[in-house]
Amino acid sequence: MNTQSASSTNTLLRPMLTALAVIITLTANTLAVVLPLNNRSTKAISDSFNVFFTPSGYVFSIWSVIYTALIAFSVYSFLPRNRTNATLQAISPWFLLSCAMNSAWIFLWHYGFYPLTMLVMLVLLVSLIMVYVRLGIGETHYSSSDFWCVRFTFSVYLGWICVATIANATALLYDVQWSGFEISANVWTAIMLGVALTLGAILIETRRDTLLVSVFLWAFVGIALKHSSVAVVGTSAWAAVAVTALLLLRGMMLSWRNTKPKL
Asked: What distance in Å separates the CA atoms of residue 139 and residue 209, rounded to the nearest whole number?
């Protein structure tokens, strides 16, 4: 193999690994739906936990958006200008880890290894945080293709995994029959909504990431609609919706101030 072909192979290795990781992730999640794995659908397992942080079923359609975005990201990685991109190289190990954790979580969830799902979910969360930080989201200006294939992808993905991590934790605590320090499940849900809102406020102030916080809004509306008959949960969720809408408005105003021309 001559030097030129070896160099070409090296620059294609990362995008090829990226595409392979996305294919494996999509395959694992498709099997979970089509078979389904262990004869149990992901939604059926989720519904078996009597917890209030789980949103209405339609909310989970966000996965179709995330997986479409991941496909776009894998194609984007093959573009000649991106094959040697230093930032994409820096996030590659963390992205590959996130795909491995996503796939592993599906199998663990379907076969009832709930404590391990929490551990895997946390690793998935950390890996996406590392991708997010290394991409400099909220601190970097993007071209149109960079925005839709990179920033959109990882803002939405991380936003949903933040929500999923809290939901996973509530499901695990329900499974082990944790008493919650004698605090009712309704109140704990309100507390978790408060934690998510605090995180949203931090992200708006530090990163002005309205995309990520919009995912929170999507989830909160789903929680409010599903549990509106439960006074504390419904009221807290609708309050979270209102506050999140204000946070998004705040984020848009901050972004506008930073982009408007100077006199």
From this structure: 10
**What total of structural domains would you count in the chain?**
1
User: Which positions ≥6 away from 41 have C-beta within 8 Å?
Assistant: 32, 33
By CB atoms closer than 10 A (0-12, 13-18, 19+), residue 160 is buried
Domain that holds residue 173: 10-257
pLDDT in tens, 13-46: 999 999 999 999 999 999 999 999 999 988 889 8
In a domain? residue 145: yes
Q: Is residue 3 part of a domain?
A: no
Looking at residue 75, what DSSP letter applies? Answer: H
Query: Is there a domain that residue 143 lies in?
Result: yes
- Return d(Cα 160, Cα 194) in angstroms, integer: 16
Residue 64 placed within a domain:
yes
pLDDT at 261: 44
Amino acid at 22: V
Q: Supply the pLDDT for residue 2.
A: 36
pTM equals: 0.94
Q: What angle (nearest 5°) sits at the alpha carbon of residue 77, between those of residues 74 and 82?
A: 170
Q: What CA–CA distance (Å, rounded) separates 253 from 150?
A: 23
CA nearest 218: which of 72, 56, 68, 102?
A: 56
